[in-house]
Amino acid sequence: xxxxxxxxxxxxxxxxxxxxxxxxxxxxxxxxxxxxxxxxxxxxxxxxxxxxxxxxxxxxxxxxxxxxxxxxxxxxxxxxxxxxxxxxxxxxxxxxxxxxxxxxxxxxxxxxxxxxxxxxxxxxxxxxxxxxxxxxxxxxxxxxxxxxxxxxxxxxxxxxxxxxxxxxxxxxxxxxxxxxxxxxxxxxxxxxxxxxxxxxxxxxxxxxxxxxxxxxxxxxxxxxxxxxxxxxxxxxxxxxxxxxxxxxxxxxxxxxxxxxxxxxxxxxxxxxxxxxxxxxxxxxxxxxxxxxxxxxxxxxxxxxxxxxxxxxxxxxxxxxxxxxxxxxxxxxxxxxxxxxxxxxxxxxxxxxxxxxxxxxxxxxxxxxxxxxxxxxxxxxxxxxxxxxxxxxxxxxxxxxxxxxxxxxxxxxxxxxxxxxxxxxx
Length: 425
Fold this sequence. Notes:
The chain is mainly α. The protein has 16 helices and nine strands. The N and C termini lie far apart (112 Å).
């Protein structure tokens, strides 16, 4: 970066940002906006933000009589990009910290800028795991070290040392791969193993519970008037299973979300506008609350109370599932991990049961695109994975449809004479 202000000030400093020369317009000093460079918008946004910051800071310092120097320019650049003197972007931790700090400026494939808070938490979580792994190995990782050997060692560390399951381990692998590929876009050399098919996420079948229509009706018809907080939780649960809304959206519903007999809201996670009709049970609950939704509650209380609701109505049969259990009961610091086994169904109930029950109970009865529009899933693959449907499930659904069509063809019309139409005796 070169900064000039009249004849008095003329400084040139490195931004420490890296780009492949073929993507850089040296004459204009900007990033080439070509399709081959996926991070073109992000990098140019970073440079534009730096330019604005330097100009604004210069005006402030100049007007206040401060000193403009080479060191001042260097400090302004480092402050803008959250850098320190010891940063080396070839180190995995250093680059990941830079990656996370710039996620709020990242331009997403849908054109939006910035990521959700949960995404930031996930990347900070992987950063902590890699730090633990470095301490375990007593070695600082460089991006070029992220190869298939690292893949095997890190996977073993997460499963056997950190007691994580295969799905959580797989998500961490995906995050690491994403960070390395992002570094590649900025011209940092990565190990070719990253792009091999063997460097992929680990998976295992997910077990989850849903409420059948008969169980929903059992909950709906149960009298909770003697326990007001469970009565309120039951009402929210019924609303959830018949709207398919995420709990982050569901518990925010108020009378303002009701428009001409429909529930309308914008999903916090996807920013999608969702409109759905009011189910008869939902209509009765809204009427019960004088045209409004149930009393506001927190996600944690809702999660705890609906377990008690299901226990109260007798949904206590043993079913396969996973529960978070303290795997170090005698230790001062509790460590909770998901453990697969057979548990009472009411104990496995959580806030996710609302959306999954809605999707599962309507799958095969309504067109999948209609369900996806309500649940907010972007692709059919994501939707089917969410409700645990496989290719065999789809084949069985098709077979049932064909059998039904065949039975309709084979069914012969029957005519019964109910009156002769004459007065003959």
